[in-house]
Amino acid sequence: MGDHSHGSPSTSGTVATAGQSDVEKFQDPGLPPHRPRRADKDPRAEKRAERQVAILFVISIIGTVLFFVGYFGIRLDDTIATLRFQNFTLGMGTAFAMLGIGVGIVHWAKTLMPDHEIVEERHEVRTEEDRRDAEQIIGQVLDESGISRRPLIRNTLIGAGVLAILPAIGIFRDLSKDLNPEVLRHTMWDAGVRLTRDPSGTPIKASDVTIGSAFHVIPEGLNEAEHKLEEKAKAVVLLMRLNPDELNVSPGREDWNYNGIVAYSKICTHVGCPVALYEQHTHHLLCPCHQSTFDLTQECKVIFGPAAHALPQLPISVDDEGYLVATSDFHEPVGPSYWERG
């Protein structure tokens, strides 16, 4: 056998043992060296960065103005093209308003605000000293940000910030004129109004609706209505047919369906998104916005998701020609739940 004394784990030093008590400590590497930015060394680069930040804030201001032009200047005329143009204007205006402020502040911080890394030791908190330290920190932040000596950035930021909140104020104030919950209690549905296909307006016969099928439905005459979009937002309906034995009908609703054909409001009771997905095997209706799920066999009771109220049911029957017709309007308000609906 050879001599293994020079390569054993206990003598080679490669394996720590219980007897080794002196452990080397990691040395504090300190802060990394500061690398000056171009704006730190070149006054022209600093002014250029300042102008870039100001331009971004001006873009935010333009975006807010564009939003107001789309919101107040474009009048809807019940055509899809006008509605899409207004939505495009509102979306682009909001995007530029928010993006201009966000990118401008980030660019300001990266190019003009001090980027030195510092280490501060924690100190004992004392009331008066803490107050004075807070004042000193705030003053230091204002000084380092350069907002006091860069009026161009300061003024454009103030202008962009003030204007950016105005769209929200305008929207909520404008809602106050039509926020009466009674508006949602009445739609174009009434006794004898035929159910028609959306968007063609073609009447639907009971024989057209097979088990497992689903139709997107609007009331007859909607396409000729004066305020087509507003009326459609309240009256749009989903029409489906089940085996009548699978329906759990509440007392008083026995004549609300016709041979298993049922009609329910398409407007989700959470925030008003269109419920457009029907799973025929489970008889579930799904809202794609927040995944609220309604059970068609239980009168569209909520079985999952944030919706707090079942979808309103439209009572239906057939006329002398076999076409599906409503027997009345909805018996409850359509759309999102609110405390006045009771």
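The record above closes out task 2.4. Task 2.5 opens with a second protein, given below.
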Amino acid sequence: MSKKVLVLADVRRQKLRNVTLEMIGAATRIADGGEVGVVILGKDIKALADGLGNYGVDVSYVVDSAELEHYNPSAYRKAFMEAVRDFEPSAILMAHSAVGRDFGPVMAARLGAGQVSDIVDIEGEGDDLRFVRPIYAGKAFTKVRIKQGTTIVTVRPNNLTPAEAGVGKAGTVKELAVSFEQPDLATMVREIVEKANTGVDLTEAKVIVSGGRGVKDASGFEPLKELADLLGAAVGASRGACDAGYCDYSLQIGQTGKVVTPDLYIACGISGAIQHLAGMSSSKVIVAINKDPEAPIFQVADYGIVGDLFEVVPMLTSEFKNVLADR
């Protein structure tokens, strides 16, 4: 039975993040021949709706307002509900990001909907769809099915197959005029001051080079950064490295940091505490570099190198340079 599935686009700095295409691909599968809609909220984001029909989107809702420049649950709820009333979805997809983790429950409560958080896969077909999500720090998986009513799902980035261009749909763009009065907004975010970060976004990176306490100090991240730059990778860190002051907490990967699922994860000087494994054990290929042959990280690694990272990482960088130079 075909359905109507609505996707909340994940927007950062006036750009659609890759997880949006992953959600559109999932929405197409869930809709099973039905309609797929996308909601784009923000400021100066009208152009983002162009061409989404070619990815299989039937209708794109755009709410362009200064009040939506930064995430505000009250403003998002009012704007998103306008699209929900018009589209009447049976399922809603959001990214399992800082926004989705907060806004998903907000909308579930508002709509009286069932919610499934942090899914990494979808199994089954038609009305027998099951959403797969990790539990116990990734040691086990549950398969959840919502039997009736609206379903709200948050999707972990880098796990589902993204929609591809070439569908050929024209797609409809609807600009929604939403007014935000003071009683609607309990709080207002006027400005967000971010630390400068020109590197690859950790949560969407295909390759991550990560360091732990084994880097010894802040300068120990330099060879890791050199390797990451060569591979077009993001640099991450364990909580131990962050707590020691070797790097900023924005790089932290783990149970209390970011959860990542890259194609390649290179762990340098990371012992492999369960809290760190919870954030990266779903990576497709894991390479561990550690002087301790008994380090727990080797239990989840696909490839293990027992050695000093300050010797091994420069050797890897040199070899990668040679391989890339031959291409």
